[in-house]
Amino acid sequence: MDARLKTLDIIYQVHADQMADKSLACAKGCATCCTRNVTLTTLEGRRLYDWIAAEAPHLMELLKKDADKPRQIPTYTINGLTDMCMAGQDVPEEPSDPGWGACPLLSEEGVCQVYEARPFACRSMVSQSRCESEGFAEMDDLTLTINNALMQYVEHTDDNGLTGNLTDMLLLLEDEANRSAHETSTLSAPDDRFVANRPAQVLMVPPPHRDAVGQMMQTIQERKG
C-alpha cells in the first residue's frame, strides 16, 4: 500500500512539474470546474480520506449532508474507455451535469478545503483562460495528452481497486473494513455506483506527443527507484 501511495504522490508531483511552465489562468477562488461530478480511484480516495481524517474530519459530515444530491456515477474507467476505443466499440455517454452543484468539499468562498490531497481529476482540470468567461476549460493538446496518460497510470497503479464518485468513494473508505480490503487488493464493488479498475494495456498518446510522454514516464520510474 505504501508503495502505491508513493507512486501516486510521484505522479501528482510530475504533473505539477509539467504544468509549472504553462500560462494557466487557474487561481485560488476560481472554482467553476469544482462540481459534484469528480470521480477518482480508491487509491486517490485513500490519500484524500487519510488527509481529511487527520486534518479536517468535519468535512465528512458536510459530505454526508449532501450525499442524496445527484452526481456523476461512472460506468467505465479511463483504461476501460481506452480498451473500448481500441476494440472499435461505441463509448456510452455518462450523465454529468455541472448544474447539479458544487463539490461538497468546496467552501462557501469557493476555496478547495482539501487542496493538498485533491485527486488527479482536480489537478488535471487546468485552463489557459478563465472558465467562467469561456464556459469551458481551455488546454493545449499536449496538456490533454499528459492528463490522459497520467490518469491511466493512476488507475494502473490501483488496478485491483475501484473508480467512483468522490462522495461515494469517501463514504466507502470511511469503513475500516473497506480500507483494509483495499490494502490487500480484495475490495470488490458493493453496488453499481462503482466500477472495477483495469491495468493500462496501451497509453492514449498521439505520435507527436510520444517523446514528451516517454520522458515523463521515465522520470516517474526513476523517482520510484
Automatic annotation (TrEMBL):
InterPro entries: Puta_zinc/iron-chelating_dom
One Pfam short name: CxxCxxCC
Protein's UniProt name: Zinc/iron-chelating domain-containing protein
